[in-house]
Specification:
Blueprint lengths: L1 E3 L12 H7 L22 H16 L6 E6 L3 H9 L3 E7 L3 H4 L6 H14 L5 H8 L1
Parallel strand pairs: 1-2, 2-3
C-alpha cells in the first residue's frame, strides 16, 4: 500500500505498522520533490509527481505498472487523485483531504476539465464519469 503524506511530513509520517504487519500489508512512502530528504524539482507538476510515485512503487516492487492501494492524506490527496485519474491505483482512500479535494465544487472549471480529459484519455475499463466520481 502506498501512503502519500500531506505537506510538511513526507515519509516521516506513517500509520498502523503493527496492524498492517499482522495483515501482511507493506506500507510504502517517500518524500515528494522538495520535502524531507528530497531535492526540489523545478517545473514539478501534479502529473509529474504522480509519475514520481509510480516510478518509486515500480522500483520498490521490482515490477512495472502494478496497481496498488493508495492512501493519501491532506495535501497529498491531490497526488493520490492524480494517480487514480491516470489509472495507477487499485483503490484510493483520501484521509482528511485538502479543501479542493474534499469539496470538488471549489475546483475551477478548467481544473475540472483537465481531470475529465485525463480520466477520459486514460480509461478503457470504466466510463469517464465513473472514474471522475470515484476519485472526487
Amino acid at each position: 500500500m502506498l501512503f502519500i503524506a500531506g505537506a510538511g511530513t513526507g515519509k516521516s509520517m506513517t500509520f498502523g505498522e503493527d496492524v498492517l504487519d499482522g495483515l501482511g500489508v507493506r506500507l510504502l512512502t517517500m518524500d515528494r520533490p522538495g520535502m524531507g530528504g528530497s531535492t526540489h524539482a523545478e517545473g514539478r507538476t501534479v502529473a509529474s509527481t504522480a509519475a514520481d510515485y509510480r516510478a518509486f512503487v515500480d522500483g520498490v516492487l521490482g515490477e512495472s505498472g502494478a496497481r496498488i492501494p493508495v492512501v493519501a492524506n491532506s495535501q497529498g490527496a491531490v497526488f493520490g487523485r492524480a494517480m487514480a485519474c491516470l489509472c495507477m491505483t487499485r483503490s484510493l482512500i483520501l484521509v482528511s483531504p485538502a479543501d479542493e479535494i474534499s469539496y470538488p465544487s471549489s475546483l475551477s472549471p478548467n481544473e475540472f476539465n483537465v481531470l475529465a480529459f485525463t480520466a477520459r484519455k486514460n480509461t478503457s475499463e470504466q466510463s469517464t464519469q465513473e472514474v471522475i466520481w470515484a476519485v472526487l
